[in-house]
Amino acid sequence: MNYKNFQYPLETEYLSLAEQLKNEMLINHLNNNTTAVNNTDLNDLNDLNDLIVMAKSSFIPNLFDMAIRLEKVDAAVCSFKLGMYGLCADCEEEIEYSDLEQDPAQPRCKACREHSRYHHD
């Protein structure tokens, strides 16, 4: 299948979410040292991961949701780089194209989403 039409929107969403998350962290003054957040290099995966961890531990719902979505989109972008995009993270079967049209960052096939004993979404 040709998944290339999903790559650019995912990369764009990734960059947009990273910037939004950084700005929201600054607005909410979640870190006593706003300089650290302000100096976060969104191209540095370690910096971005630190920002995601801070957002998830903030217990502010919109920041938590944004951080979760950013992780999911990051995983999809990485799967393109690995040549694994479109394959289920659990069973490695192809994810239905219609599911990817609904959410290009969907990491699991319908069967794994419905039958997993863990809640993934």
What are the key terms here?
single chain; 121 residues; mainly alpha; 6 helices; 0% strand
How would you summarize the topology of this molecule?
Layout: H1 4-27, H2 34-38, H3 45-56, H4 61-82, H5 97-102, H6 110-115
Helix pairs in contact: 1-3, 1-4, 3-4
Short description:
The chain is an all-alpha fold and 121 residues long.
Tell me what the structure shows:
The protein has 121 residues and is mainly α. The chain has six helices and no strands. Helix 1 crosses helix 3 (45-56), helix 1 (4-27) runs antiparallel to helix 4 (61-82) and helix 3 runs antiparallel to helix 4. The longest helix is centred in the N-terminal third of the chain and has 24 residues, at 4-27. The mean pLDDT is 87.
User: How would you sum up the major sheet?
Assistant: none
The total of helices stands at 6
Record field, number of beta strands: 0
* SS content category: mainly alpha
**Strand content bin:** under 5%
How much helicity do the residues have?
A: 55-70%
Q: Which spans have pLDDT < 50 for at least 5 consecutive residues?
A: none
The radius of gyration is 16 Å
This entry's quaternary arrangement is single chain
Order of helices and strands: HHHHHH
Mean pLDDT: 87
Terminus-to-terminus distance: 24 Å
Shape: elongated
